[in-house]
Design brief:
The protein is mainly alpha-helical and about 110 residues long. It folds into two domains: about 50 residues; about 50 residues, Wheat Germ Agglutinin (Isolectin 2), domain 1. Helix content is about 55%, strand content about 10%. A two-stranded antiparallel sheet has the order 1-2. It has a two-stranded antiparallel ribbon with strand order 3-4. A hairpin with a 6-residue loop joins strand 1 and strand 2. Bound molecules: zinc ion. The site of zinc ion has 8 residues, from loops.
Length: about 110
């Protein structure tokens, strides 16, 4: 009785082990297919959802390299170190600086 139970139990365990192996391989195969499918789908989604390249702000185009300022009279751009500054305004030359001051004085 004890022997029979033991053999029967052993046999059942062996069968279930074989079944588990088959089931495990089957599930593994399905999981593999799902993973590959998701990876393929994910990669395609990433490709389709590529973010647009960052566009440089147009305001920074005038301030490349050295600090550039704009003459209040003729509108020419020149480095800040070469500009004439008066009352918080920039001018390309001393002449334009005087013109700017005259305009400011006259309104
Ligand atoms: Zn000027």
């Amino acid at each position: 009785m004890a022997r029979g139970d033991g053999l029967r139990y052993d046999g059942a365990a062996r069968i279930s082990a074989l079944g588990n192996t088959f089931l495990a391989k089957f599930l593994l195969l399905i999981a593999l297919v799902i993973v590959v499918y998701l990876l393929f789908r994910g990669s395609r989604r990433v490709e389709s959802q590529q973010p647009a390249p960052p566009q440089p702000a147009p305001q920074h185009s005038e301030t490349t390299g050295e600090d550039m300022v704009r003459c209040s009279i003729c509108g020419v751009h020149l480095p800040r170190s070469e500009s004439f500054i008066s009352r918080g305004r920039f001018f390309c030359s001393d002449e334009h600086r005087r013109l700017g001051l005259e305009r400011t004085n006259h309104g």
